[in-house]
Amino acid sequence: MLLALTFTLGGLAILPLVADRFVVAATRISRALGLSPILVGALLVGFGTSLPEIVVSGLAAAKGETSFAVANVVGSNVANLALVLGVAASIRPIASSRGLIRKEGSLVLIVTLLYVAIHINGDVQWWEGVILLIVLALALGLLIRWSEGGLLDDDDDLERYVTVRKELFVGVLTMGATVAAATILVEGAERLAVELDIQSAFIAATLVAVGTSLPELATAVAAVRRHEADLVLGNVLGSNLFNSLAVGGVAGVVGPGVIDPGFRVLLLAMLAITAFTGLVAVTGSRLARSEGAALLVVFALFVWLAGSNLA
C-alpha cells in the first residue's frame, strides 16, 4: 500500500511541472515557425500526451486483453472531452474561433463514429486496425492543410533555428517526463485498485483511462492558465484523434479479439458525449465555466454507467 501511494502521489506531483514546461516549448515552437497553435496542439502535444494510451493499450492487446485496450481508448476519450475540458473551462472560460472548432470538432466526431462502427459488433479484426491507421494519415493531412500561417521571413531564419532547436530539445525531454510521470501514476493507481479489490474492467474504463489522460489534463490546465485556448483545444482534439486512430489502430493490429458486450453501451455513451461536447462548443465561441461544470457532471455519469455495465 505504501509503494502504491508513493507512485500515485509522486506522479501527481511531477505531472503539472513537466506539463507546464511542455506547453511553453510547444507554444514557442509554433510561434517561431509561424504555425497555428491548433496544429502544434493536435500534432506535437496531442501525440505526446497520447503516448501513455498507445503503450497501455498496445501492451494489453498484445496480451490478448482486447477489452482492456478498448476500455482505455473509450475512457480516455471521454475523460479528454468531459474531464479535461470541464476542468480547464472551470478554471478559465475557453474562447476560440468557431470555425476552428467546427472543422476539428467535426473531424473528431467522424473519427469517433468510425471507431464505434468498427467495435460495436463485439470484435476487432486486424484489417480494421489497418483502416484506422490509414484514416489517421488522412486526418493528419487535413490538420496540416487547415493550419493557418506559414514560416517567418528569411531574415528570421537564424533566430528561428536557434529557438526551434532549443525548444524542441526541451519539448522532447518534458514530453518524455510527462509520459514517465503518467506511467508511474498509473502503476500506483493500479496497485491501489488491486489491493482495494476493484473490478478490473471498471478499472480499465475509468481509473486507467483517467490515469493515461492525466498528461492531457495537466497540459490543458497549464495552457489555459497561460491563455493558450487554441492549444487546449488542439491538445484535446488531437489526443482523441490519436486515441481513436493510432491507439485503436495499433491495438487492433497487434491484438485482434473479442470485446466484452458491456462495452457496447460505453461506446454509444462515448459517441453521445462527443456529440454533446461538440454541440456545446459549436453553439458559442467560448466554453463558459457553467458549461465546464456540466461536462464534469457528464463525466461523473459516465463513471456511474461504466460501473453499472462492467461490475
Gist?
Helix content is 84%, strand content 3%. The protein is an all-alpha fold.
Structure notes:
It is a single chain. This protein is mainly α. The protein has one domain (2-310): A middle domain of Talin 1. Helix content is 84%, strand content 3%. It contains ten helices and four strands; from the N terminus they run H-H-H-E-H-E-H-H-H-H-E-H-E-H. The chain has a two-stranded antiparallel sheet. A two-stranded antiparallel ribbon has the order 2-3. The two termini are 23 Å apart. The relative contact order is 0.25. Residues 149-155 have low confidence and may be disordered.
Order of helices and strands: HHHEHEHHHHEHEH
Point out poorly predicted stretches: 149-155
Report the CATH superfamily: NCX, central ion-binding region
Main sheet strand line-up: 1-4
Number of helices: 10
Based on CA atoms alone, the radius of gyration comes out at: 19 Å
Task: Kindly name the structural category.
Answer: mainly alpha
Let me know the largest β-sheet: 2 strands, antiparallel
What is the strand tally?
A: 4
SSE arrangement:
Layout: H1 2-33, H2 37-62, H3 66-91, E1 94-95, H4 98-119, E2 123-124, H5 126-146, H6 157-195, H7 200-225, H8 229-254, E3 257-258, H9 263-282, E4 286-287, H10 289-310
Antiparallel strand pairs: 1-4, 2-3
Keywords:
single chain, 311 residues, mainly alpha, A middle domain of Talin 1, two-stranded antiparallel ribbon, 10 helices, 4 strands, 84% helix, globular
